[in-house]
Amino acid sequence: MKKTKIIATIGPASKDEETLREMALKGMDIARINMKYASHKFVKSIVETIHHINEQMDTNVSIMLDLKGPDLTVNNFVGGTAYFTEGTKIRIYAEEILGDSTKLSVNYDKFVHKVKTNTTLKIDDGRIELFVIDKTEEYLLCEVVNGGFIEDGKGINVIGQNLNIPFLSEKDVEDIKFANEINVDFLALSFPSSGEDVLQVNDLLIGLNNDHITIVSKIENQAAIDDIDEIIHNSDGIMVARGDLGVEIPLERVPGIQKQIINKCHRMGKVSIVATEMMMTMENNARPSRAEVSDVANAVLDGVDVVMLSGETTIGRYPIMTIETMVKIIESSEQDQNYYEFLDRTMRTEKQDISGNISYSTVECANRLKCRLIMVPTVTGYTAKKISRFRPSSPIIALTPDENVVKELTMYYGIYPVLVGEIKTFDKMMKEVREQAYHYGAKGGLVIVTGGYPFSEVKHTNFMKIEEM
User: Fold this and answer.
1) What is the C-alpha to C-alpha distance for residues 2 and 367, in angstroms, rounded to an integer?
2) What is the pTM of this model?
3) Which of 175, 206, 319, 463 has the most CB atoms in a 10 Å sphere around its CB?
């Protein structure tokens, strides 16, 4: 059983029920839908299909909506595309125009007013680079540093300058309300620049009386890196979105920042996700590159909670095979993880309370005794999350009567949540533990049971029990 989770983005290559079912069977834990491209009708169809698959196959695939955010894009071109020649001059107009090889406009009406001269602009993940050499009230005059073809709607990044675009657009607000209506599990926030941006979304969810949706902040620019501690503090999880991040900052800085963010999330007890081009070769090939295998493996060895697939499963030719391959890499890499190092590192930053010490002891015993499973009856998911932070070598089976808790726990390292009926007595708990332990293949081995008892009366983890199945 893999412990590192997989997010797969849903698109044309993966939207039919048969493909989604196979993806769920092969190892997809969370289905992501990018609201930059998806309609509400499309989202509803995917959500209904996922729910149907979960009921049929007794799986717990969760749903993540990724908000469009305050991203900048170029407007349309004559014929849908244009070619910018290196060394030529082009104009970016304040008014919306139909672009060509000499001019374009951007989807933000204050763009020309706010962008300064001597600024670098990068389009389409940095493939095309412009340098602002002059400006008037009507346009920016730019020199093409790196040329090439450009298409409608490609993203444009302003390097080294924060334009202070409002974080939540009307579309994002409507999408958040829609996410609340259909009860999705996770919201991914695009381009937050500060902890305050995250609080805006949190306040909106509070206003909607929604305490279920988990907030994941995507780190995509220098401003977010500058305020990373506050963003982590205000979020439930962090996604290292290496696409835009690798355009906004020098590419060579991305690996180090990725490791720093994973470590910070681990220390602060928040979920970490690594995304973008992890298995990009498999969009068109049945095998990943050696560099991609190393990329996934290194994220796993660093203790990341989740790895994410984007184009590989939205437009790729091999969405199911890509998930199978990623699972193999994850399972192999997890055999090489230094679980004792994670245990010691976590204990140094853990609160010295009852829950922390019992969680530590549980994981230490599980590692030393090579326990098959850690069984965690939990109402809120608190104990399971606490144990997950210690990165045990054993999978964590979280037994909970709350369906929302089941969906939330799908994102946490090592946790396999199971929906059970209400557990009121210790004997009933142990009966449920044994049944689930046998179901997950622990017969003939040791399991550790831990949690808080009496249920719903204590607010901390207070017992640990070792059972031979």
Assistant:
1) 16
2) 0.94
3) 319
Selection from 437, 219, 466 nearest residue 366 by Cα? 466
From first to last of its 469 residues, the chain has per-residue pLDDT tens of 999 999 999 999 999 999 999 999 999 999 999 999 999 999 999 999 999 999 999 999 999 999 999 989 999 999 999 999 999 999 999 999 999 999 999 999 999 999 999 999 999 989 999 999 999 999 999 999 999 999 999 999 999 888 889 999 999 999 999 999 999 999 999 999 999 999 999 999 999 999 999 999 999 999 999 999 999 999 999 999 999 999 999 999 999 999 999 999 999 999 999 999 999 999 999 999 999 999 999 999 999 999 999 999 999 999 999 999 999 999 999 999 999 999 999 999 888 888 889 999 999 999 999 999 999 999 899 999 999 999 999 999 999 999 999 999 999 999 999 999 988 888 888 999 999 999 999 999 999 999 888 776 777 788 899 999 8
Q: What are the structure tokens assigned to 66, written together?
A: 């990724």
Under DSSP, the state recorded for 264 is H
User: Half-sphere exposure (CA, 13 Å, Cβ side) for 53?
Assistant: 26
The CA distance from 429 to 338, in Å, is 32
Q: Which residue has the tokens 């929604």?
A: 210
Beta-carbon contacts of 160 under 8 Å, excluding residues fewer than 6 positions away, are: 119, 120, 222
What residues does 329 pair with on adjacent strands? none
* Total number of residues shown for the chain: 469
Residue 467 CB: number of other CB atoms within 10 A? 17
B/e letters for 343-367, b = 16+ CB within 10 Å, e = fewer, are bebbbeebeeeebbebbbebbbbbb
The amino acid at residue 325 is T
Residue 248 and residue 232: Cα distance in Å, rounded? 20
